[in-house]
Amino acid sequence: MAPSTLLYFVIGYFLVLFVVAWYTSRNSNNDSFFIGNRNSNWMLVAFGMIGTSLSGVTFVSVPGSVGNIGKEGLLPNALGYFQVVIGYFLGYLVVAFVLLPLYYKLNLTSIYNYLKQRFGTWAYKTGASFFILSRTVGATARLYLVINVLHIFILSKLHIPFWVSAAVVLIMILLYTFEGGVKTIVYTDTLQTTLMIVGLIVCIGYILSHLNFSVSEAVNAMEAKNLTKIFNTDIKSKGFFLKQIIGGAFITIAMTGLDQEMMQKNISVKNLKDSQKNMLSFSVILVFVNLLFLLLGGLLYLYAYHNGAGFRTIMAGDVPTWAFVQNDLNITGDNLFPSVALGLLQTMPSFISIIFIIALISALFPSADGALTALTSTFCIDILGIKERDDLNEKQQRKIRLTVHLIMTMIFFISILIFREINSRSIIDKILDLAGYTYGPLLGLFTFGILTKRNLPDNFIIALIALVSPVICYLLQTNAPHFFNGYVIGIEILIINGLLTFTGLLIISKKQ
């Protein structure tokens, strides 16, 4: 399909979002932007959060991860990401029954106000600052991945530079979140999640039909090519199943339960009971949807093989991975799904290309718009403290909020350009690695507050501990194979980081 035709569908999609944004942002105010007037429907929040959690990274990177072999073995750990998904589910239980009751009890607008009430200003500002860093890095990676796909397959063929592609997408997100904030996002995320899941199911259905497979026959064909392995039992491996499951649980606790973007939507629900129903239903659906994405990954390799693509093992950086070869190109990882869906094999019908593009954008926006809104909320409430200033009326607060929203969009733009220079083979691996460093101090701070009754000095030492812990973790992870007889530290770096922060806080703490 011609790139210009796909671009028309993208523009049409944006117009639909603007109509939804206009309708939902009428009569909105600052509370609408920050917490949706605490009147959101829990079912809409639950469904929309699926898109926020999955994002364009899951849509593109998880299917591509099926071909990863990994440093530690010759056989592909094809469905190894599902180990992390199991951990995600366990983590959501902790968020639902430990963290949400705490947030509702304290009636928080920003979850980092808990740190202020528990420890004082330095812990509060430190937690909010690490969220801003964490979410900026994570959202940048997610945005870069999808913008890069749109640029490679559509915009570059129309001779549009990458920076223009990034700027246009960010301007669109800025415009439809500018007024309504969370109130608007609850509805747009529901629409986008629906389109993303429909796109996933349609792509799976078409490939099954094209290969004349039932689901069980497809699984058998994947097994014949060793594409169904889930559990890694090598204890020294970065992908060892216990590390992946436990690490996945803590990733969820940190990246959902201690993340203003995710919790901002949950605490916009009317009451705790409905918010918990939201979290539990969302977590069950999320496991199922991730399993579908992994099934799609296996089907993509079968489809490419069936349509004449050759396969070989290549080195992507220092990691061996399967690649299918077409027209002297090695297609791996994050490029697999877009390359097949957008016609590299010249066998996909045009309607699949259209559905893929719409679903991909739908996967991008729930994470991007939520991140932008949450960062604006955190900076305004936690760093600038506009809700606590008696000298600011509603109109003045709104002016500050809109200015911060614009500045955050510019920071996203600069970060995307930086990330383009350090792009790696698999974005989802990069996000999990970075999360271990940036969310670790948050995990340590909240855990210390919840599990102990000790007080902390309200001074810069708290921030110093939060900065030193990730540095120690980096040195430890880099040298672990040498120190520990070949043991590779992977996703558990988040737990180690949190423990180091917790220990540092324990050392400087005093009894109440």
CATH class: Mainly Alpha
H-E string: HHHHHHHHHHHHEEEHHHHHHH
Discrete helix count: 19
Proportion in β-strands: under 5%
CA-atom Rg in angstroms: 22 Å
The biggest beta sheet is recorded as: 3 strands, antiparallel
Under the CATH scheme, the architecture is Up-down Bundle
Q: What's the CATH H-level superfamily name?
A: Sodium/glucose cotransporter
Q: Structural class from helices and strands? A: mainly alpha
Runs with pLDDT <50, length 5+? 69-75
Shape: globular
Number of strands: 3
Supply the key terms.
Sodium/glucose cotransporter; about 500 residues; three-stranded antiparallel sheet; single chain; mainly alpha; globular
Architecture overview:
The radius of gyration is 22 Å and the shape is globular. With about 500 residues, the protein is mostly helical. It has one domain: Sodium/glucose cotransporter (Up-down Bundle), CATH 1.20.1730. Strand 2 and strand 3 form a beta hairpin. The protein is built from 19 helices and 3 strands. Helix content is about 70%, strand content about 5%. Strands 1-2-3 form a 3-stranded antiparallel sheet, covered by helices on one side.
